[in-house]
Structure to design on (395 residues):
């Protein structure tokens, strides 16, 4: 049986495959749940509640999940998350009312947090520090691929017949797709057993969240990750509006967003090469600053070819930011708290995906819609600045 130190690691391929399937499920099902909400009589307010609950439940459970993983229960957490990536999809298809659909949404959000924490934590538990960025790059490549295929597949099934969209049929189809994660999870088990740590023993080495956040570099790393995730969400939500205001077709906007995703795939494929040539922090602050400048330019340079350049550049930078911040927080903490810091990073991501878009949307009531890109870009520029400063002084 291959161990974490074996040169050939089929379990890692299984982990990437698990990530692809799971992310395809999350990306496709979340949109289907929105349509299902409308079918069941939900309003725009209810849609907002569904979105918030998907992110808020993981926000409050992230640290507890990280502690379990740090005690050696990564595979158990992965299996639980896998189950909660399948059953809630079926529950959404069966949901007779909005209450049941809300429960399904919360469980699916929890499933995503469980699988994400376990998958990310298995990498620093299994590979040396010099290989972390490359391995995180492959893992986040799986995220990008899954997100790219999930929505088109779900949409194609829902719209396969003439007439109204078949949302329930599409949810059942995505249930079958998500069930494939079980096969991938079995492959991950080839990694071997991780020794468990008792609760009392783990408590001796466990550090409080505030103590972990006080580690030099932790706050700028989490800030860089938060601003990237918020920028991606704002770009996806508001580029259609910018396109509509400037006469761009739905097809053009869709291709532009797809180009952004493909650029992230490319950067994650070559991140190992880039980090061998440049320092991780230098690469991170450069990516944040360049992405921020591109996003600020989106409402200004609205010709399709200009937008293509801006989105491709920003997407390439986004692809670098996430694995680089994963490596950064992983190497800042001791092994006993490694999954905990990854969980705090993910909790920060969830918080940013709720708070920053909400604040930006409120500003559109008193300012042009382009203000959201200015905010997202300014935050990324700020993240680049604090990352750069971290190379020279404490923050």
């Amino acid at each position: 049986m291959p161990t974490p130190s074996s040169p050939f690691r089929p379990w890692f391929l299984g982990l990437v495959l698990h990530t692809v399937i799971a992310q395809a499920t999350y990306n496709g099902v979340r949109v289907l749940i929105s349509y299902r909400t409308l079918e069941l009589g939900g309003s725009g307010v209810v849609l907002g509640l569904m979105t918030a609950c998907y992110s808020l439940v993981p926000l409050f459970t992230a640290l507890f999940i990280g502690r379990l993983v740090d005690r050696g229960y990564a595979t158990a957490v992965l299996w639980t998350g896998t189950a909660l990536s399948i059953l809630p999809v079926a529950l959404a298809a069966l949901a007779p009312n909005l209450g049941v659909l809300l429960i399904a949404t919360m469980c699916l959000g929890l499933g995503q947090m469980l699988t994400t924490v376990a998958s990310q934590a298995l990498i620093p538990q299994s590979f040396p520090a010099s290989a972390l960025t490359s391995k995180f790059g492959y893992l986040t490549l799986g995220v990008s691929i899954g997100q790219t295929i999930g929505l088109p597949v779900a949409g194609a099934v829902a719209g396969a017949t003439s007439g109204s969209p078949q949302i329930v049929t599409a949810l059942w189809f995505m249930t079958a797709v998500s069930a494939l994660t079980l096969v991938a999870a079995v492959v991950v088990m080839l990694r071997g057993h991780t020794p468990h740590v008792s609760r009392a023993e783990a408590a001796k080495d466990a550090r409080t969240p505030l103590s972990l956040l006080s580690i030099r570099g932790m706050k700028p790393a989490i800030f860089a990750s938060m601003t990237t995730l918020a920028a991606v969400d704002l770009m996806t939500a508001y580029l259609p509006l910018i396109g509509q205001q400037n006469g761009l077709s739905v097809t053009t906007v869709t291709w532009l967003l797809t180009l952004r995703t493909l650029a992230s795939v490319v950067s994650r494929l070559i991140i190992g090469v880039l980090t061998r040539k440049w320092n991780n922090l230098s690469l991170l602050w450069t990516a944040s600053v360049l992405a921020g400048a591109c996003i600020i330019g989106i409402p200004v340079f609205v010709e399709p070819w200009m937008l293509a350049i801006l989105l491709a550049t920003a997407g390439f930078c986004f692809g670098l930011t996430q694995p680089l911040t994963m490596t950064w927080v992983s190497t800042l903490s001791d092994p006993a708290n490694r999954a905990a810091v990854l969980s705090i990073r993910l909790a920060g991501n969830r918080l940013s995906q709720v708070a920053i878009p909400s604040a930006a949307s409120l500003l559109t009531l008193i300012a042009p819609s382009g203000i959201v890109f200015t905010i997202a870009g300014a935050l990324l520029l700020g993240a680049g600045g604090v990352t750069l400063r971290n190379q020279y002084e404490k923050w």
Summary: The chain has two domains: 1-206, 209-395. Confidence is low (pLDDT under 50) at residues 1-7.
